[in-house]
Amino acid sequence: EIDNAIENSNTQLGYHRIGITRRIDSNWSNGTPDRSRRVIINEDYLHNDGSHLSARQLTIDNNSKLTIQDKLLIVSDLVTITGINDEIRLAGSRSQLITTHSGNSGISGNGKLYIDQNSDIASTYRYNYFSSPVTTVGQNTFTIASVMKDGSFPTSADSNPLDITFTNEMDGDYTTSPITISDYWIYSYGSSSDWVQTRKDGILNPADGFTLKGPGQEQNYTFVGTPNDGVTSISIGANQSYLVGNPFPSAINSKKFIEDNSESITGTLYFWEQHPGHSEENDNEHYSSNYVGGYATRNLTMGIAAPNNGEDGVIFKIPGKYIAVAQGFFITGSNTGGEVVFKNSQREYKREGEDSLFFRDGENSSTETYQDPVVKIGLDYTNSEGQNLHRQLGVSFNENRSFSFDLGYDSPMYDLQPTDMFWKFTLDDTKYVIAGVQEISDDLEIPLGITIGFDSEIVVKLDEKQNIERNIYLKDKLTGITEKLTDNEQGILITLTQGEYLERYAIVFQESSSLGVNENIVNNNIDIYLDNTVNELVLKNNLNLNIKKVALYNILGQSIKTWNNLGAELEHRLRVRVPETVYIVAITTEQGIIRKKVRIN
User: Distance between CA 378 and CA 307 in Å, rounded?
Assistant: First the structure.
């Protein structure tokens, strides 16, 4: 028995109604709707209080309008929106429609669904990535002009969204009524493996995503058409990129979507984000140099923010587990490619902000709780335009993962910057933004690659950790020094010259022990300096230690020159002719290894 059961519903013990219940004369004719009932709407009805509205089969007819205000409409079987004047309106930011049957679409009729999505990307010069939760009425495809309306007045029981005015000019305009949108900037990216200018009348499939530039203000859009339902799919080629989108008038679970398509895609979703620090004052023309941004990333374990503005107080948008209504995103085909499916079992009711995020300026997702231990590492740096930026990486730990590629847990980087940071494993040349590796141990080292666009300072810091009790360190494998990242709000400042550092740094979980007695003896009794007059490195071996090896490395960690078996003489002179810069000298003796930094002038 269900406590506090709704009166006249089939949840009451021993009390079950059968047959149709109709909404007519402001009442239900045969008890309250639930998921066991066939429900017919024969008059205009606003459902805005109590629980969500449920039905087994739902029919809208008699020129009727069903308006759902900030609630879920859930139907387990078929939906019929009978005539051209019959409507379902999902009003408010919390309203969604979910159908739970399997198989192909169960939607029929010539009526329409209304649902909104808002973009607060105010600039005329910035891209939105959209998809459509509806198709053109009576068809299984859509055009932007047929389904996307001026939503300046959000959907309500009596709203009347106007057809957008599309112009061939470059700029949209919010001062007109209806708003004006430039169809020049409407593009898709699909089977051709390139951007295709779709414009307002280009035909798109339900799972296709598209780009759009707005009218110059924050703008609400109303989608009007036949709601997408059941299985919808696209075909993706091997290693091909494809701009897809959530095709349903509800959120979808990214984990279920990735798992359902594990043989066809790499298991990573990419969401475009413009840098919020790239101000409106710079957004004055349609120049590609203004498109300063990157891709936030989502896989089975976590979401990672795009490289973003690193100033204090900036909110980083992290894609949550659920993909919002009308959200477009990129996927990549696996080595074989194949069919990519969206289906009803992926749909879930998640209001935006509840681990569901539509990518637009100035909004963040809620903090996610992860099942596995997770570490997120941040890089603060300044790009060539003087912008302070922040790159984020993530890594999860599980005994079933490895340094080999694990689909759904390892995510290649989609937007490498001239100065950047990435996970770099020796098994392949791929640079990863998210990695899944084995369990944490004292010996575990996760290689951290860094590329520097010009001589500069960077800061490496710990952005987040979950389900980990131990400290986390950054190890410089060239010098052997580890520095603590845990509880270090300022991060670790590193000065590097231009180039790639692929093997020098690693994330570790045990601090290197301090110099032992023998190593201290070595450190205190070997001096090294450069004799510029004869281009020689001079080693003063004050204890006549047996020097087995001397190795010279550049600041990238690359071996430049090695001298072996020097013996126990008091002084050693080593000839060097190398470019002027800073080098590391590693000296191996029978009592330990020391490393010293020298500048050759």
Answer: 10
Positions of the chain with pLDDT under 50: 1, 277-281, 360-366, 514-517
Torsion of CA 46, 50, 56, 58, to 10 degrees: 0
Partnered with residue 333 across adjacent β-strands are 265
Nearest to 599 by CA among 520, 528, 499, 524: 528
- How high is the pLDDT of residue 536? 85
How open is the CA angle 275-280-284, to the nearest 5 degrees?
115
Which has the closest alpha carbon to 575: 545, 541, 539? 539
What is the rounded CA–CA span in Å between residue 12 and residue 125?
A: 57
Amino acid at 214: G
Separation between Cα atoms, residue 332 and residue 242, nearest integer Å: 6
Alpha helix stretches (DSSP H) within 47-200: 144-147
Q: Is 254 helix (H, G, I), strand (E, B) or coil?
A: helix
Q: What is the pLDDT of residues 344-353, one digit of tens each?
A: 999 999 877 5
How many Cβ atoms from other residues are within 10 Å of residue 402's Cβ? 15
CA-based radius of gyration for the chain: 30
What's the rounded Cα separation, in Å, for the pair 100 and 191?
30
Question: Are 528 and 551 within 8 A, CB to CB?
Answer: no
Q: Which helix (H) or strand (E) holds 553?
A: strand 547-554
Residue found under tokens 């990216």: 189
Angle 507-258-221 from CA coordinates, rounded to 5°: 105
Give the integer Cα–Cα distance in Å for 83 and 64.
9
Distance between CA atoms of residues 221 and 115, nearest Å: 8
Q: Give the pair of three-digit tokens for residue 450.
A: 């860094």
Tell me the HSE value of 414 on the side-chain side, using a 13 A CA sphere: 28
pTM for the model: 0.84
What pLDDT, on the 0 to 100 scale, is given for residue 289? 60
Question: CA angle at residue 441 from 438 to 445, to 5 degrees?
Answer: 75
d(CA 81, CA 593): 78
Residue identified by tokens 């079987």 is 77
Strand order in the sheet with 107-108: 27-28, 21-24, 38-41, 57-60, 79-81, 107-108
Residues for the chain: how many in total?
601
